[in-house]
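Write out this protein's structure.
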Amino acid sequence: MTKMLGKVPPRILRQIVFRNLGAPSNRVIVGPGIGIDNTVISLDGFKIIVSMDPVTGAKENLGKIGVDVSTNDVALSGAKPEFLLVSLILPPGTGEESIRYIMRQASSEARRLGVSIIGGHTEYSDIVENPVFVGTAIGWTRRRRIITSGGAKPGENIVIVGYAGVEGTSILASDLEKKLKNMGIPRVIIKRASRLVKSISVVKQALIAADYVSAMHDPTEGGVLGGIYEMCEASNTGCLVDLSSIPVRSETKIICEKLGLDPLKLISSGTLLATVGRDKTVKLVEKLRAKGFKATVIGRVTKGVKKICLFEGREMEIEEPPQDELWRALSKWA
């Protein structure tokens, strides 16, 4: 039997998870769905945005990454994340210094983003072999239009902000440092790659883009290809994407080549996917670039549900979200 790691397949979500959601509520504006990043609740004229994310594949920068991936998903709605609940599940024997290290990282990143950690849960469990960080981020807004990953419309452009595989590259460089050195990757490349952990937050980029886009999505597990699939599924659309136009950092290329990984299937927090009307695309790209963020048009949204990618003159269809390459690397090399 194949060992399953990462996100549960869409089929299981549809047939089991989404059919068992407790009592319905008319306060829920945006509920669970394939590729949906957050939940939106209406409360006395306010819209409350909530998102939960676990971090199970990182060790060295667990606290920072945990804050970033949770708060990113709130910002994708166009609302600023303000509060965070943190649950830490720790292997027996985890020392106080390790807990302090994780929480100092989390606190430092939350403070940088203007986010308050307001509670959570911490426990030891022999179920886990490494610490697990689960963050629940909360924000609010009075905006009439809430942005979701399901708002893409045929004819719109698909824009990527940042580079593919940023989070995965930083995790591999930090957690497999000795292995990468033994494989001949120069120390300077590994150092640069590990520092990409500083680029995982997309809160600023999302809040800039909110006035221009119809949909935004944070391509986490499954990488950019998985993110494209999820955004199209959420929007009930297809796409035509030029894979050669997706930016990949040199550090990512080098590490992925050595480990035999596909950078477009590598966990990509720190990257933002957005759809935007043709009349607003130039303004959005210019605005982001003026703030120091790389923004690239990589394709367009199409009618129907086929998700087509072009590579070296050939067409390939994304029929389901790929398993993330990080799990393959860690199961083999960690």
